[in-house]
Write a structure and sequence with these properties.
Belongs to the ABC transporter superfamily. The C terminus is likely disordered. The chain has 18 helices and 15 strands.
């Protein structure tokens, strides 16, 4: 369910903004608009943000992302279009109602911390609640709680100037969380931090998001940051949103050459997941089948091993053709006692490809991919992972073509060890 929605939002700066808007509606390009002396900061932006989602807006400097986020809470008025928060049109709110919206539903974390230098860390963290009229004891209690969660317990009485940049940004994050709003807007919130501190604060944000499930709109120009923390990403160029998708979707299926060039230097092994490279297993053996049927199935597919699945395709073990053949010779009627549970530890579908190489190198069997209930989703043969790695280093399209055109390999082919 979407909690925030932008519909055809446009922001034009200049005396002839109305004329520029008319021309844009008639199909004029941005150069014609600029020739009027009008700056098209945001043009026809449409998107929805789901409850509990981290929605990242990413683009180079001047792409319009900071202007866009300021229209979401009414700090800037849109030239045209609609911003809806919980169904309320932000542009139609009275000044009093808009203040109430910012106090109760939408808080903001700024790039340069925006802390009051004369107020203590505790007073800064409690400021949103103070504005709302929450009694001192209650607001300071909540502020202390969130300062503890962001790692600043014991710093409550210090002034912002006594804190490092990373610590100051943690105060800003604690203030936004203490305010108790459903939506948090973060405008380049981590860009002023050193790389190591930046990663620590990113980890903190993801941890807090896992606990509280806030809806976050996060602005950044850093692609790796966007792909690390965003559930979905909107890529902006010259005021327009050119693509919206998950990190994996944007990486594997860029909408145009601009996006493809933008993501060219990303470490894809950290973004692509097991789901991207897994294949449907060529053969699986039902747990309730007999050894003769299992052996015949494995020989038909020229595989010397197969995964065994129970009801609802839950992974229960694996069997080898050698063991099954001996069981058939001995007159065994069921697979009970023949299953090998070794090497079964499956990976989740969202496991980054970078974490799969050691696992594939340690086992001759493909790596099974399963969901939280143990249902087998697919397998990752070593050769497939290596082929994907080679394609990753050249062009993503080659990964897709290779996966689509190659036959599905058996779990273990006779005599190959692969």
């Amino acid at each position: 369910m979407s909690i925030l929605r932008a519909e055809s939002v446009t922001k034009l700066f200049g005396r002839k903004a109305a004329e520029a808007q008319r021309r844009l509606g008639a199909g004029a390009d941005l150069e014609e608009v600029r020739a009027l002396g009008v700056m098209p900061a945001v043009v026809d932006a449409t998107f929805e943000v789901e409850q509990g989602e981290i929605f990242v807006v990413m683009g180079l400097s001047g792409s319009g992302k900071s202007t866009l986020i300021r229209m979401l809470n009414g700090l800037l008025e849109a030239t045209s279009g609609t911003v809806l928060i919980d169904g309320q049109d932000v542009a139609k709110l009275s000044p009093k109602a808009l203040r109430a919206l910012r106090q109760n539903k939408v808080s903001m974390v700024f790039q340069h911390f925006a802390l009051f230098p004369h107020r203590s860390v505790l007073a800064n963290a409690a400021y949103g609640l103070e504005v709302r009229g929450v009694p001192k004891e209650e607001r300071e209690g909540k502020a202390r709680e969130f300062l503890r969660l962001v790692g600043l317990e014991g710093w409550e009485d210090r002034l912002p100037g006594q804190l490092s940049g990373g610590m100051q940004q943690r105060v800003g994050l604690a203030r936004a969380l203490a305010a108790g709003t459903d939506i948090i807007l973060m405008d380049e919130a981590f860009s002023a931090l050193d790389p190591l501190i930046r990663r620590e604060v990113q980890d903190l944000l993801l941890d807090l998001q896992g606990r509280f499930g806030k809806t976050i709109v996060f602005i950044t120009h850093d692609l790796n940051e966007a792909m690390r923390i965003g559930d979905r990403i909107a890529v902006m160029r010259e005021g327009r949103i050119v693509q919206i998708g998950t990190a994996e979707e944007i990486l594997t299926d860029p909408a145009n050459d601009y996006v493809a060039q933008f993501v060219a230097d990303v470490d894809r092994t950290r973004v692509l997941t097991a789901r991207s490279v897994m294949e449907k297993p060529l053969v699986t053996v039902p747990a309730n089948t007999g050894p003769r049927t299992a052996l015949r199935t494995m020989r038909e597919h020229q595989t010397s091993a197969a995964f065994v699945v129970g009801r609802d395709r839950r992974l229960v073990g694996k069997v080898t053709a050698e063991v099954i053949a001996d069981a058939v010779a001995d007159g065994v009627q069921t697979l009970d006692g023949l299953l090998d549970p070794g090497d079964l530890d499956p990976v989740a579908a969202d496991t980054p490809v970078a974490e799969l190489f050691a696992r594939c190198a340690e086992s001759d069997l493909p790596v099974p991919v399963a969901d939280a209930d143990g249902t087998l989703l697919g397998v990752i043969p070593r050769v497939t992972l290596l082929a994907a790695l080679g394609a990753i280093n050249t062009h993503v399209d080659e990964v897709l073509d290779e996966g689509a055109g190659a036959p599905e390999p058996a779990l273990v082919k006779e005599g190959t060890g692969e």
